[in-house]
Amino acid sequence: MIWTAGFRTAVISPYEQLQFSEPRGFVDQTVRQVLHMAGGGEAFRLRLTNRYGRTPLAIQAATVAVGHRQAVLSFDGAEHCVIPAGEECFSDPVDLPVAAGTDLVVSLYLPERTGLATHSHRPAEVARIADGNHVTSPVLPWTEQVEARYYISGVDVPAPQDTVIAAAFGDSWFEGVGTTTSANHRSVDFLNRRLKRGWVVNQGIAGNRLLRDGVGEHALARFDRDVLSIPALTHVLVHFGINDLGLPGVLGEPPTTASALIEGFSALAGRAHRAGLKILAATIGPFAGAGPGISTPEGLATRREVNDWIRTTDAFDSVVDVARTVADPHAPDHIHPALDSGDGMHLNDKGAEAMADAVNLDDLAL
User: Would the pLDDT of 17 be above 70?
Assistant: First the structure.
């Protein structure tokens, strides 16, 4: 048995300009968060992060609940910890079995002013925030609800060495923007329901780009931390490109060229193969319905050119043709109306399921 990721979430700097949730901090508050497990095991440990913090993060008390069972988290035997700025820590192992598809409910009490929080900004799940220490309370008193995840970057579980462990490394089409909040209808969730021997952990960041920083460090910069650091990893799925093509028009940047995207995808493939991983590449999804600024004739033409390359190159072990799967057959630069979340750029629940169904499970085998 080895420790590997049973849940992961990519985190971003609160100091970057975000498109969605506003960065925030806490003082004398309990933050309660739901983590939907991709994989399970006979025990687990929590990974907490202060990667982008500028001051030490004090956690005075923490609990985790699995169904009606609750455990107090400890850190090197103590029921509290301080995580230095820029660092991460693990909890001690919790001897509670947890199954794939189970929700862990984690409560953190933050007694001191935290400064802006390292967080995931569009996880398709809410954090509940209450004043005071309520980590052991079955129900929080009146709470604020925010779609974000704070200070948690992963949950590790022990798994057999022959388990398939994949990372879904990409943008909002993995993180779940457009799907029903708190329903676990992200494309990665649907894919995990199809898998029998292994699981996929979600390292999508809404707004993330392959080539340029913005909402999180760009893919080539975060690949080592968010992919290669996962223990016992065997595969990586990638979906990037929409933000590389759509955001320059909004931000006043030069357009991204097909050659630059191809070079970036080739670099990812090379790094994955050097690490002994199989890499599955998704074609860039349609986004013509996103409207002026994001959707431009030049960007859509580049998308078609890069997708033709993805479909025909031997750089990847396999291709997931997401673009054709979710496109409107009468207007293939657009998402099919039945699969569109309503913004012309993101998939709804049915679209996320279709994206997951496009993956050939034989390509996620050892």
Answer: no
